[in-house]
Amino acid sequence: MPLSRFVKKSLCNLSVNARCQTVAIMMKQVTGCHPGGLLLVCLTLAVVFMIGVWQDPATHKLITPSPVSVHPLYPSRVPLLDLPGFTYIINNDVCSADVFIIVIIHTHPANRMERDLMRQHIPEEDLRDLGMRRVFLLARAEWEDQELYHKTSQWSINEENLMHHDIIQGNFKEHYHNLTYKHIMGLQWATHYCPHTKFIIKMDDDIAVDLYQFRDKLRTRFWGRKNLILGLMQIEAKPVRNKASKWYVSEKEYPEKYYAPFMSGWAYAMTMDAASAIVAESIKWPYFWIDDVHVTGTLAEKVGVKREGLNRFYTLHVDHLHCCVELPNNADYFCDFLVGPSEGDPDVLGKVWDHARSCYINPCQRRPPEISVSKTCVRAKLPPLAPLGKGHGEIVKVYGPFL
User: Can you give the CATH number for the domain in which 170 is found?
Assistant: First the structure.
């Protein structure tokens, strides 16, 4: 068999029909089987396979073939809002059928210390015992407009993932205006790779979250609920119209006077069915970059997802967290709050998580109302964040078990 016919036959056996037809036409144009003609074919095919698109000489139409095989963790052409060509740079499959909660954590590529701090103080073994898994959500690091962050190489992120296998990284740019991409990426990833999980907890890497108590609350009070988001509810919050603000929103971007009721992106819990509905709805609406407003407010409202406030278990003041671990006999009591800010202090995160874990290992008591942190903690300064809107009223038991 002439070498040219052998090459054509071999390629056809390995390729889709469109590729075979193109190769056949190309081979007909090569006269004889001499080194120059074969080299021309090989170079042409190399370009074809590298760019993944070519023109069919018979129809003059562009052909974009599907990959011959695709790894399940790295599918091609994953839809993500309006992003063309989205895919995962790093992906991991961490879930199994017995997972109750998947925790997805927004983090910047440069924040290795924050990720390692959480891994140290809330170890993977505890999460597995609780029926939980954890992943960190990153985007692609670019540094020309990120002066506040320490430059971190992709190589070091790959190395970190090889050590811990808990990173999900998308191929869009890391930037606060791209947080909605990251948010939807996380929910979409969870619905695809952890479909049997009951709840998603989304949190930021600088927020102190007592995952042990949060899990118990979801399991005891909200086990049977569906189509639900739980968190720090913001009602009648207004867009920032001050052009000097980092969070300025023009009337063109968001024309309404108030945002739809939404959950603070610090930390919230969402049922998996709610996440699926929000992800499906997300491609129907224009991109809006304030992610918690868009995802848990606008999109949740569009698909009728119920939002319930757990506001009494959130604090805006870091001093409340200090008091949780420093008041007399603190080791005997759970912290009164599930979620609070660290103000960028890793010591706060470490102390709160250590205290939460201690209460998990050696069960603590609830503080009596008369010695609650809110009543006995002396606040050193005003909260760093003013309320975003009207308060969210709730009727609660003063005495009784923690719900």
Answer: 3.90.550
The answer to whether residue 400 sits within a structural domain is no
- Boundaries of domain holding 36: 3-63
Contacts of 40 (CB under 8 A, 6+ apart): 30
The pTM of the whole model exceeds 0.85: no
Beta strands in 276-316, from DSSP E residues, in sequence order: 306-309
Give the CA count within 13 Å in the CB-facing half-sphere of 234: 25
From the list 115, 207, 206, 109, the residue with the least C-alpha distance to 149 is 109
pLDDT at 323: 93
pLDDT for 10: 40
Give the pLDDT of residue 91. Answer: 97
Same domain, 147 and 104: yes
- The number of domains in the chain is 2
Q: Which residues of the chain have pLDDT under 70?
A: 1-70, 143-149, 379-403
Residue 66, Cα to own-chain centre: how many angstroms? 28
Q: Does 261 map to a domain?
A: yes
Q: Quote the pLDDT of residue 293.
A: 98
| Backbone angle region of 236, left / alpha / beta, with phi > 0 → left and psi within -120 to 50 → alpha | left
Nearest CA among 214, 216, 210, 200 for reference residue 357 = 210
